[in-house]
């Protein structure tokens, strides 16, 4: 990513001894750093919104989306004959360079801003105009040649550009999350296969329950992630509906009647997404429903992933005084005072990502509700909340997979000991020896911590061969289904 404009040759008419240039708007004049590719409207935003200390360039997807929207607009305006072909070509070339990663550092306005995203749109208009000017031998700010508003923003308003760019940026970010989410799902599924025949004690309400396999537990994690993948994928097409062409409030004022359909077609060609123009542009310009939908589904995914991380922390707790059924990869020293301590830092960080996503969902909900009449002024905080949540979830899925799940191992001796002495195993014998006998066995096992199979044989309730078959991993975990009627107590159990 280029960190400064390409000004190896000084543009014609530039005074290299002057550190600033002066730009003027309806409010007056402002001095701008001479080589800055942003202009007066961006300068005012920098002064007015010293809030987040985070420029919009922290979200490259948003910068690239703005460039794509402006590129589609330039193509549509050229096709409709409302913008000179030379100017359109300049704009398009500048947008291509931004999409390639150049000049992102010039997108400097804060992510949190008043004005419904106007400052972001102005920043984009000014950078694109000045990149084009410099590339064609003119000085930054020489707007008599190419103007940020009259040319780059032709047929547009912040109120249709900004939400369209935000939706497009969310599409890019969501695609990235889906790819990482799917790989994480596959990692859990692979562990499910690896652990398929390892018995363990199942638990309900943190109390011992009936046996299962460790593979079933991890396969359940994979199934949970599969369901959330489906919900996230269902959300993506909702982001393809745009209000580009609505201009200020949805009436299309200042735009050619054919502009909305034309620019949508060009946007489809540039992105590969099946964009459609909203049927009611007035409604679409003020509606933030799709952002709430995405936020809600994202929260669901984050919270369910966090629950899985809770389980991983519990299952690996110890290593001596906890569950100790699995071992997570040791990633770093866990204490500045306790030598040898290793903490489950990867699940912990994913938990925190989920907490942030849940909080962001509340922010998005409140911002959507706060919209008034023909516009929602709070889309900047919606965009920031969702783009951050998507980025953090993507990073969380990646680090959970690479730094944790792929390296999980089963503590076989610990698991075998816990299963062999677990009273939950007795549940599998109840249909054969009766509830009363099973209860007595359970009580003895709890008091003596002895092996269940040994107690059954010693009580002369059945042969060792028979009891071992009944408490085999396949039977205990339900993998081997029992479909025939089972004679109880005095009969000859069919095994």
From TrEMBL:
Domain (Fumarate lyase N-terminal) ranges: 29-359
Annotated signal sequence range: none
Domain of life, source organism: Bacteria
Disordered: annotated segments: 1-28
UniProt keywords, alphabetically: Lyase
Keyword match Membrane: no
Pfam families: FumaraseC_C (PF10415), Lyase_1 (PF00206)
PROSITE patterns, alphabetized: FUMARATE_LYASES (PS00163)
Entries under InterPro entries matching the protein: Aspartate_Ammonia-Lyase, Fumarase/histidase_N, Fumarase_C_C, Fumarate_lyase_CS, Fumarate_lyase_fam, Fumarate_lyase_N, L-Aspartase-like
Domain Fumarase C C-terminal: 426-476
Biased composition annotated in UniProt, kind: Low complexity: 1-17
PANTHER family given in the database record: ASPARTATE AMMONIA-LYASE
Protein name (Swiss-Prot/TrEMBL): Aspartate ammonia-lyase
């Amino acid at each position: 990513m280029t960190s400064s404009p390409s000004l190896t040759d000084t543009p014609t008419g530039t005074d290299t001894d002057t550190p600033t240039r002066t730009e003027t708007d309806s409010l007056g004049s402002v001095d701008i750093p001479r080589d800055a590719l942003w202009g007066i409207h961006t300068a005012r935003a920098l002064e007015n919104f010293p809030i987040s200390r985070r420029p919009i360039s922290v979200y490259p997807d948003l910068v690239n989306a703005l460039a794509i929207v402006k590129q589609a607009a330039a193509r549509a305006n050229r096709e409709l004959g409302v913008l000179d072909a030379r100017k359109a070509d300049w704009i398009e070339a500048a947008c291509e360079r931004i999409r390639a990663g150049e000049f992102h550092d010039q997108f400097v306005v804060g992510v949190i801003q008043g004005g419904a995203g106007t400052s972001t749109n102005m920043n984009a208009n000014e950078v694109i105009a000045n990149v084009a000017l410099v590339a064609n031998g003119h000085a930054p700010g020489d707007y008599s040649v190419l103007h940020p508003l009259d040319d780059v923003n032709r047929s547009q308003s912040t109120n249709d550009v900004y939400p369209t760019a935000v939706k497009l940026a969310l599409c890019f970010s969501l695609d990235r999350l889906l790819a990482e989410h799917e790989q994480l799902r596959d990692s859990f599924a692979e562990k499910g296969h690896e652990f398929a025949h390892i018995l363990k004690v199942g638990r309900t309400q943190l109390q011992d329950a009936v046996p299962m396999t460790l593979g079933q537990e991890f396969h359940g994690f994979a199934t949970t992630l599969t369901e959330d993948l489906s919900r996230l994928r269902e959300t993506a097409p909702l982001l393809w509906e745009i209000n580009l062409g609505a201009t200020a409030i949805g009436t299309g004022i200042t735009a050619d009647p054919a502009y909305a359909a034309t620019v949508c077609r060009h946007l489809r060609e540039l992105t590969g997404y099946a964009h459609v123009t909203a049927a009611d542009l007035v409604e679409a310009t003020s509606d933030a429903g799709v952002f709430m939908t995405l936020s809600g589904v994202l929260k669901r995914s984050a919270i369910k992933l966090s629950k899985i991380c809770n389980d991983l922390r519990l299952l690996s707790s110890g290593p001596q005084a906890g569950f100790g059924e699995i071992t997570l990869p040791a990633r770093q020293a866990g204490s500045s005072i306790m030598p040898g301590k290793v903490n489950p830092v990867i699940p912990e960080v994913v938990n925190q990502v989920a907490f942030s996503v849940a909080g962001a969902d509340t922010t998005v909900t409140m911002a959507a509700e706060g919209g008034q009449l023909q516009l929602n002024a709070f889309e900047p905080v919606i965009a920031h909340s969702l783009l951050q949540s998507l980025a953090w979830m993507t990073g969380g899925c990646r680090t959970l997979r690479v730094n944790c799940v792929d390296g999980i191992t089963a503590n076989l001796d610990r698991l075998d000991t816990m299963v062999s002495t677990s009273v939950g195993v007795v549940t599998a014998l109840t249909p054969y020896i009766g509830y009363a006998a099973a209860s007595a066995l359970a009580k003895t096992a709890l008091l003596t911590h002895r092996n269940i199979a040994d107690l059954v044989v010693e009580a002369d309730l059945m042969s060792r061969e028979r009891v071992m078959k009944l408490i085999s991993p396949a039977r205990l975990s339900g993998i081997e289904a029992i479909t025939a009627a089972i004679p109880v107590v005095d009969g000859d159990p069919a095994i």
